[in-house]
Amino acid sequence: MSCKNGQVKVIVPLFSTALCEIAVKLLDIPTAIINEAITAELVEGNLVAEIIGEEDVIFLTPLYRAEVGCAAQLQRLNKGEPL
């Protein structure tokens, strides 16, 4: 994963570019350290990276799981399947 000029390259809701830029500004920490921290959290499973449309996004794992679960239930309801 790399973040140069505000671009995060991850096969990965917060747009990853925005996450890197905001973290660098708010925490006043170099981009390289932010990249290491994001990578470590991805490896530990605390973050989930996904591509939505053409955008790389990063989710907190519990929120990602909740969103995926809600989407699955909505799809089930849309098909008219019973509880």
Tell me, rounded to a whole number, the average pLDDT. 82
| CATH architectural designation | Orthogonal Bundle
Beta-strand percent range: 15-25%
Task: Indicate the structural class.
Answer: alpha+beta
SSE arrangement, N to C: EEEHHEEH
Number of strands: 5
Unreliable residue stretches: 1-12
Radius of gyration: 16 Å
Specify the number of helices: 3
CATH topology: Arc Repressor Mutant, subunit A
- How many domain regions? 1
What overall geometry do the principal axes of the alpha carbons give?
Answer: elongated
* Helical amount: 40-55%
Question: Could you walk me through the main structural features you see in this protein, from its secondary elements to its overall organization?
Answer:
By secondary structure, the protein is of the alpha+beta class. It has a single domain, classed as Arc Repressor Mutant, subunit A (Orthogonal Bundle), CATH 1.10.10. 53% of the residues lie in helices and 22% in strands. It has a 3-stranded antiparallel β-sheet. It has a two-stranded antiparallel ribbon with strand order 1-2.
Annotation keywords:
Arc Repressor Mutant, subunit A, 3-stranded antiparallel beta sheet, two-stranded antiparallel ribbon
In short:
The protein has helices at 16-27, 31-44, 61-78, and strands at residues 3-4, 7-8, 14-15, 47-52, 55-60. Mean pLDDT is 82; it is low at 1-12. It contains 3 helices and 5 strands.
